[in-house]
Each structure stands twice: as structure tokens, then as C-alpha cells.
Amino acid sequence: MNYCLYCHEAFYEPVSWRFITRLSEAMPFCDDCSSSFEAINGEFCGICGRSFTLFPEQYRQKHCCTDCIRWEEGKEWSGVLTKNRSLYVYNDFLKQIISMLKYRGDAELIQGFRAPFRKLYKQEFRGMLIVPVPLSVERHYERGFNQAQLLAELLGDEIIVPIERIIHEKKQSKKSRKERLDIKENIFQASKEAEKIKGKSVLLIDDVYTTGATIRQAAKVMLEAGALEVSSMTVGR
Amino acid sequence: MRFVSFFVDGKNRIAPEPLAPRHHHSISTSFYNLHNVDPPPLNEGYSFNTTLQAELAGKLLLLDELSLSLNEVHDHYDHGYIRYNKGIDNEQGKWKCNRCGNNEPRLFASFSCYRCKEMQCVYCRNCIMMGRVSQCTPLVSWIGPSLNWKDRNCESVWEGMLSSAQENASLRLEEKIGVKDELLIWAVCGAGKTEVLFQGIEKALKTGQRVCIATPRTDVVLELLPRLRKVFPGVTLSGLYGGSMDHMDGAQLILSTTHQLFRFRKAFDLIIVDEVDAFPFSYDKTLAYAVQQAQKAEALIVYLSATPDRKMKQRAEDGKLPSVKIPKRYHGFPLPVPHFLWCGHWKKKLKKNKLPGNVMNWINHQLERNRQGFLFVPSVRTLEQIVPLLKEMNPLIEGVHAEDPDRKEKVIRFRNGETPILVTTTILERGVTVPFTDVAVLGTEEEIFTESALVQIAGRAGRSKDDPAGEVLFYHYGKTTAMVQAKRHIEQMNREAGL
């Protein structure tokens, strides 16, 4: 018998060969919770990884969503982010889990993403330098941990922190889209470890890609510090 | 967080890292690693902050939950007015949370902590909704002078009349005030148990006692709060539930969900535990711990229930638990006795988007004669299947379950008579009272409908003296012991009431 990592209900895992041979880890979530995740598969935006099933046809042009086209139109942000891939649609259920993780501080919930996050990494980004999106010192102290770093640690490869967050601003989740996109001053700057990314492909890790503003700002600082290209991977999109 | 420990006049002291005295060279470490956290003796000449006293007296809180700055709070430690307590303890190799009492290994986890810099800072997952308690998290308690409410007017202005059975229970409660004891008030649904409490509470308040009414459900806090405010207009009253904004700190009378009791320590002289048999109270042993921790050593604990569990009934019958019964409803009419109606394999029908014929007839019948009805179903999944079907019959029909974001509004609409039929899971089996309504249960044979749940559900009908004979229908696919016992229970109570 297992207990669901999120709702704590007891459940029995369906018996399968994987289960009997113990080749895979125990299922972290119960059936009800598992079925509330919407995995991103089928067609999605080639840049930001958003599922095309979610929005009307007019917001899409070939392989790209109109949000990404807007990013790519401006000179400042064009090509800054090579591609983003995410595990799940950022639906109400995932919102609840992420808020439990970040705002309540239940760090253990990270373990629920271990297997799929590693799988996506192996499929799409293996060999790239892993960089978690940093928090400001104040926010990091308040939370006690950085969820992006916990996610990065799941991947099992070396992690570097070539950038730091200098501006302690209001929570991204409390801002409107317009506020987020209105970038006056980059919230990141290069850190002592920035040397290490010169000429390398870098993979940014974060919990959620919402408008792409945070990830692009971080990517830009790293490109300026000499990174070859920057992609990103998140749990929610 | 990190603390330093150092010596002043040969006595051990501690301070949070940012407030460490400059001239002492000592190493910062996780709060958990400190050996001696005792505060210095009380400095009686110190003029303490009364806001902090009101916030913290009788409680155990996180530093983040206090309105004062760390600096101001810590000053009270230096003068012996507060104590830092360990949030997580290790008892014989087992973790224990000192806030909620959890010691279930699977409900602890750890993370690499930026506050204390330990690679593994263990935290409690059981009470995390109230803010994380980890190894390096101190829980703050007040050890200065206690609160007093001497100048308050504690008079009850309630002018209603008690029935003789209510009067009897009320007197029993009054007698017990000030005695370290327990009392079970076993009152049928609709007995008017709230009114029974007023005299006892008044007596307790007048003698300067701090009183808490704890209930498992937020709905009940919301319903009771305005009533109590009317009855005790001069008393400081606070209503606490998850997400409540009311922080009337230092109130003498507290109405709280059982979960919120985790924040209290040795606070109350009188605790009234409403619906002591209700999920999740009987279910979650850490909640029993919460009640135990919140009471003072000499406290009186009163249990209210229409359906005490077997253990409690046994203790009452053996005379080990003082108890008093109110078998009759306040309006004097008998409890409606449930009817059993077989409805076939309803799950199969639902899969085909159909309702059993007799359930359908009941709904139609209710709609035709304009009578409201509760329809109880065993699970959220059933609720989601059935509500769209019923909406086709009447678009005003609604469904509500525990996690429903519009729960409050939907219950209000039903209460106002705007919703003809309200489909619900067992969350509304207690507390919610709507005068003119009938009750039906679909799938009564399901395990979730225990004897006590069914007695409570049946108790939703016939609540008003103008409509005492509400209908109670149990639609089932095979009778269960719980159903039979529930019916027997109701008939027995009617007999005891002489009806």
C-alpha cells in the first residue's frame, strides 16, 4: 500500500511487471491525483512548448504560438530562448501542487516529478549544463529552499549557478501579464560561476513557464556572458 | 533559522543569528542543535508589549505569525517573557512535531535548508497548511503574565426559553463549571444544543475563564459566530478557521475549527468539543492531541454529540463519563423515521446517464409540490455524474462538495430557497439547518454512510416546528447493518422522549 504524496490517501498500485520486479519507483500519486495531471503531448509550440490543443486556432501560426511570435519579432528578445519543454499543462490541479510546494513549503512534493522530469531531460536536453533559475536572497530565505534548484537536483547531473537574482521584486504570480512583459531592467546578473558557461549549451530549470519573461531575462544574461545557446525545462506550462 | 548561544554572567543565553551580540565569538548553528534554550528569569520591571501578549498568550506560534519584528520579540526573551521551543523533536529515534503531535514517519520529510544551512532539515507534512514547522523553526510561547478580562461585561442577553430537557442539560453544565472533569451532552439533531450552552458559558466567562468552542467544520463556525456575538455582546469573541481573517487576538471566547487548536497551548479553562464523533475529529488522532494540548490542567471538557461512538457510549453507560441526554427535539415533535426504498443497480444506471425510476419520481414530486430537498450521494464522482442529469429537469438544481470553491454561496442559495434540490456529499450531513426540507440518500448501502452519518442525515429533516414531519428516504441496493441501526437509533430516541 502507498500513500499519495499530495492528498495523503492510501492506495494500491496496480500490479504490473514493472511493479513486481521493482524496476521502477513506487507511484507517487494516487489514481485520482495522477489523472488530474494533463501531460503535454501531441502538437505544441516549437518554442515555448505550450500544447496547441488548449487554445483557438487563430493564436497559432504554423509551429509557433502568437505569444512566441511576439517575442521573436522584437530585436531585443529574438532568439534568446532556443526552446522550452514542459511536463504538464499548468491547470488548476498543478497550480495547487505548485502553490503547496512553494508557498506552503512542502519540498517533498518535488519527488512526485522525479521520473517524468528525468525522462524529459534525457529525451530533449541531455549533456547541457544545468542551471536552476535563482531566487533573490530574501525570497530564498523566506522559502527556505529554491524549488528550481530542487528540480535541477532531480536530474542527477552537476548543477551550476552562473547568474544571481539582484532585484527583489513582487512575486511573479501576483503580477499581470503586462507588468511582467514590461521589462525595464534585467532582474538577473552574471555571478562568479559565469565563466563556466562560455561556449556551452545551457539548460535553465524552473517550476513554471508562464509568460516566459523570467526565463528569457535569465537566458539573456547568460548569452551575454558567453553561452552558446539557452533552452529551458519546466514542470508546468 | 540559525541561532548563537553564549554566556552572560555564567548563564547560557541564545539569540537569532542576526541579533547575535558582536563581542561574543560563538558559532551559528541550527536552532535544533542548541542544548539549552531556557530563557532568563522574568524581569518584573520590564514593560512588555501588550500586543504581543494578546497575540501569543496561550499559544504556540511561528515567528512569522507574530506582528512584531524579530528584534522586539527577542527582547521579550531577554527579559524572560517568551520561550523558544523546539518545533521538531526526536523521541527514541522517531520524529515528533511539537505543534500537531504527528509522529507518523511517512509524514516527515527533509530538505536542504537555506535558513539553517543544514543539508537535511526535517519538517512536518501533517500541519504544513499552517506554516512549515521544521527542525530549525522555533515555536514561540508566552511565559509572562496571563491575560485577564475582568472589566468585561459577560452577561448573556439571550431571552429564549429552554425546553425541560434542555433546562436539565443546561443545569448539569452549569454545575460542572470550574471543576476539572468531562461531560457528554448527548442531544438528538434539532435538540437545540447551542442554547443549552449559554448559561454555562456565561458562568465560566464571569469567573474570568477562557472558553473555546471547537467544531470540525468551518460551516458551523460561520453559522455560530453571529449568534454568539448577539448573545454575548460585551465579550471579546474570535472565530478561527482555515483562511479566516479574524484575528481578534487575546479574545476570551473563541470559536474555532478543531484544526486551529493546534496553535493553542494550555489556553482554556472550558473547551466544548462539538460533534465529537465527526470526521475528521474521530478520524485524526492528532486532533485529539490538539484538544488535549489546548486545555489547562484544571479544565472542563464538554463533548457534544447526537451520535457518540461506541467507546464514548460505553464510557457513559459505565458511569466513567458524566453524561446528560436530550432525547427530544426543542419543538417537541418526534424525529422523522427513515423509509428504506430499493432502487436497483443505480451505478449501472448512472453509467448510462439514467437515474433509478423511483429516485426520478421523488425529484419530480418535490419539484411539483415546490418542496426543497437534500439529495445525499456517496462520492464526488457520483455527484458529478448526477448533477448534469438533474439540471436537465430543473436548471436551478445544484451540487456541492467539500472542495467546491462556491460552497458557501451554494449553501446560502439553498437556505434562501432559491435552489429546489441540493445534491451533496456527506459534508452537509451536520450543522446545516434549513427549515422546510426533505431528505433522500442515493446508494445508502455504501460504506461511507455509517450509522452516525445516517442519523445525522435524517436529522436534517423536520427541523422547524411549522414542518416537523419532513420525509427521510434511503434509496439503496441492499440493506446494510448501518441502515438498520440508524433507524433503530432514531426510534429508540423517540421512545426515550416518550413520543
List the helices and strands and how they pair.
The complex is a heterodimer of chains A (237) and B (499).
Chain A: E1 2-3, E2 10-11, H1 17-20, H2 31-34, E3 60-61, E4 64-65, H3 66-73, E5 84-88, H4 92-102, H5 114-124, E6 129-132, H6 137-143, H7 147-154, E7 163-165, H8 177-181, E8 188-190, E9 201-208, H9 213-224, E10 229-236
Parallel strand pairs in A: 5-10, 6-9, 9-10
Antiparallel strand pairs in A: 1-2, 3-4, 7-8
Chain B: E1 2-8, E2 11-16, E3 29-30, H1 50-56, E4 61-62, H2 70-78, E5 82-86, E6 88-91, E7 94-97, E8 108-111, E9 121-124, E10 138-142, H3 164-176, E11 182-187, H4 193-206, E12 211-215, H5 218-231, E13 237-240, E14 253-257, E15 268-273, H6 285-294, E16 295-305, H7 310-317, E17 323-326, E18 339-342, H8 346-351, H9 357-368, E19 372-376, H10 380-393, E20 398-400, H11 407-415, E21 421-424, E22 437-442, H12 451-458, E23 472-476, H13 481-496
Parallel strand pairs in B: 11-16, 11-17, 12-14, 12-15, 13-14, 15-16, 18-23, 19-21, 19-22, 20-21, 22-23
Antiparallel strand pairs in B: 1-2, 1-3, 4-10, 5-10, 6-7, 8-9
Helix pairs in contact in B: 3-4, 12-13
What does this structure look like?
The complex is a heterodimer of chains A (237) and B (499). Chain A has helices at 17-20, 31-34, 66-73, 92-102, 114-124, 137-143, 147-154, 177-181, 213-224, and strands at residues 2-3, 10-11, 60-61, 64-65, 84-88, 129-132, 163-165, 188-190, 201-208, 229-236. Chain A folds into 2 domains: 1-35, no CATH class; 37-236, Rossmann fold. With 237 residues, chain A is of the alpha/beta class. Chain A has a 4-stranded parallel sheet with strand order 5-10-9-6. Chain B has 3 domains: 2-142, no CATH class; 164-326, P-loop containing nucleotide triphosphate hydrolases (Rossmann fold), CATH 3.40.50; 339-496, Rossmann fold, CATH 3.40.50.300. Chain B has 13 helices and 23 strands. In chain B, strands 13-14-12-15-16-11-17 form a 7-stranded parallel sheet. In chain B, a hairpin with a 2-residue loop joins strand 1 (2-8) and strand 2. In chain B, helix 12 packs across helix 13. Chain B is globular. The model of chain B has no long low-confidence stretch (mean pLDDT 91). The chains are: A alpha/beta (237), B alpha/beta (499). At the A-B interface, helix 6 of A face strand 8 of B. Chain B: Residues 174-326 form the Helicase ATP-binding domain. Chain B: GO terms for molecular function: 3'-5' DNA helicase activity; ATP binding; DNA binding; hydrolase activity. Chain B: Keywords: ATP-binding, DNA-binding, Nucleotide-binding. Chain B: Residues 358-499 form the Helicase C-terminal domain.
